[in-house]
Amino acid sequence: SNYPNPFNPITTINYSVKNAGNVKIDIYNIAGQHIYTLVDEYHSPGNLYQATWNSSTQSKAVISSGVYFYRMISGDFRKEVKMTIVK
Q1: Neighbours of 25 (CB within 10 A)
Q2: What is the DSSP string of 7-75?
Q3: What is the pTM of this model?
Q4: Residues 20-73 pLDDT 10s
């Protein structure tokens, strides 16, 4: 999961993978529109990884207060987590 949550403007996601392979973490707004690809790279199991999203500088759109989601996909694993930005 990410911390802090709620956040302004930066949040960090800690994660690990069970199997080696490509990991993708995308950020979406409440309407399901893609905002930013945070991670898209190969990872090995047994390591703790960290990704930081700065909502002020890392996005395709203006980021306002509200609910956002990050979706992590790695092989057959899929996880979606709700995040809240408070400005």
Answers
A1: 22
A2: BSSEEEEEE--SS-EEEEEEEEETT--EEEEEEEEEE-TT--EEEEEETTTS-SS---SEEEEEEEEET
A3: 0.92
A4: 999 999 999 999 999 999 999 999 998 999 999 999 888 767 789 999 999 999
What gap in Å lies between CA 22 and CA 33, rounded to an integer?
22
| CA 74 from centroid of its chain's CA atoms | 13
b vs e for 43-77, b when ≥16 Cβ sit within 10 Å of the residue's Cβ? beeeeeeebebebeebbeeebeeeebebebbbeee
Token reading at 44: 């090995």
CA distances from 67 to 32, 81, 82 (A): 11, 10, 7
**Among 64, 77, 6, 9, CA closest to 33:** 64
* Phi, psi (degrees; rounded to nearest 5) at 85: -100, 130
